[in-house]
Amino acid sequence: MSRPTTVTAAVLVIGDEILSGRTKDRNLGYIAEYLANIGVDVREARVVPDVEDEIVAAVNALRARYDYLITTGGIGPTHDDITADSIGRAFGVPVGEDPRAIAIMLERYAPADLTPARRRMARMPEGAELIENPISRAPGFRIGNVYVLAGVPAVMQAMLDFAVKSMKTGALMRVEVIAAGSLPEGLYGEALGRIASAHPNVAIGSYPSFRDGRFNNQIVVRGKDEEAVAAARRAVEEMVAALSRNAVAS
Amino acid sequence: MSRPTTVTAAVLVIGDEILSGRTKDRNLGYIAEYLANIGVDVREARVVPDVEDEIVAAVNALRARYDYLITTGGIGPTHDDITADSIGRAFGVPVGEDPRAIAIMLERYAPADLTPARRRMARMPEGAELIENPISRAPGFRIGNVYVLAGVPAVMQAMLDFAVKSMKTGALMRVEVIAAGSLPEGLYGEALGRIASAHPNVAIGSYPSFRDGRFNNQIVVRGKDEEAVAAARRAVEEMVAALSRNAVAS
């Protein structure tokens, strides 16, 4: 059997408004789930402010390390939208007005309405490919392995649908969720650790949530090998069943 | 007048479940808003998986660069909870069972119920100070400028209330929000850029949201100098009023 292929990605959220807490990011979770479902594993995410040096450093660190980097934010028409220029600097290429982007924007705006601010949205690093924006037309772009998307979730999501068409994808992650309910992590932690050691080809996590004064636990088995995931799931289910019987009996 | 003091922080979210998209992070937004309200500016955030090398690298990068680092996640009783050990390695100090943590946990658990898995939660890097956990008792900790909190939001929030007591705080960020409504960014982008250039002591951002097929824009002025923020706010308000009259007149 061939080894399941792995394709990795990072997400870079760009914007002061996320770091001030004023806007709660919804893009990372959406992108992570979307990419997981097509066989691209998000391995890291960062949030940086609207500061060119910070964006450049993060882009260069992340694009070197993962197959893909998805950025969100900073491609609008105002002075604080500096993502295109930052990406150009990260790649060491000039940034200029892209005639293809202007042509697309002229489908929405009359020439007189294509203000200098709007023309900013047509600035692209040299060599970039455009990413369609069916919502408000001004495109995102891809350069190298970096996909540059809008920050507004509805626009980002539409761009992502287009962007993924050019990504290679790996084997899908198989995910099995076993409900542990109110069985305490402290009672199954040791046994789960032994199961994790015995099943090295999967990742096993235990995730508590807390609601109405009670913990509710889930155990998640993840991996690319279907049989390995199934075997680990059975071991976890048997452990939970055995410990639950003990808990009731005691 | 003395220069407003600035205190900075970074947030490190630790956990495979955030990067898989299965769990949507709610801690970053909460911490960012909470710290902003007490005069601590969050300048960067990262999300890393439950992998020791990744946690160590991120902790060392962020604690060197900012006044404080807040981590969330990975301090429970299961094998995938490796934050304490990772922090110990980042600081180059041994990690062992802390008698103070054991004593606190014995207030909740009978000695026979203090399983080896639960005892894992008492593992602390040498020199750490405990952070109280009024929800489920097992404490977080602080070492140097790093605060290590739980990942479950209710527990993290309770720990944060305790953690901030030992933080120095800077001048509060003043934030003014000016509604631009449906006035397009592309119509005010140039004028706003000129205002931003003329008011270098504040940060001005323009934030569109998109709902029910329409954009709704807000302009945000942020800064530590109350007079500078007020002056920039007035300039933005006058610009929005003037452009809105033009838009109606045209």
CATH superfamily of the largest domain in chain A: MoaB/Mog-like domain
Q: Over all CA atoms, what is the radius of gyration of chain A?
A: 23 Å
Structural class of chain A: alpha/beta
Shape of chain A: elongated
The total tally of domains of chain A equals: 2
Helicity level of chain A: 40-55%
Number of strands of chain A: 11
| Main β sheet profile of chain A | 6 strands, mixed
CATH topology of the largest domain in chain A: Molybdenum Cofactor Biosythetic Enzyme, Chain A
Order of strands across the widest beta sheet of chain A? 2-1-3-8-7-6
Distance between the termini of chain A: 46 Å
Alpha plus pi helix count of chain A: 9
Oligomer: homodimer
CATH class of the largest domain in chain A: Alpha Beta
Strand content of chain A: 25-35%
CATH architecture identity of the largest domain in chain A: 3-Layer(aba) Sandwich
Write the layout of secondary structure elements.
2 copies of one chain form a homodimer.
Chain A: E1 8-14, H1 16-19, H2 27-38, E2 41-48, H3 52-65, E3 68-72, H4 83-91, E4 95-97, H5 99-105, H6 116-120, E5 123-125, E6 129-131, E7 140-143, E8 146-149, H7 153-163, E9 174-181, H8 185-198, E10 203-211, E11 214-223, H9 226-249
Parallel strand pairs in A: 1-2, 1-3, 3-8
Antiparallel strand pairs in A: 4-5, 6-7, 7-8, 9-11, 10-11
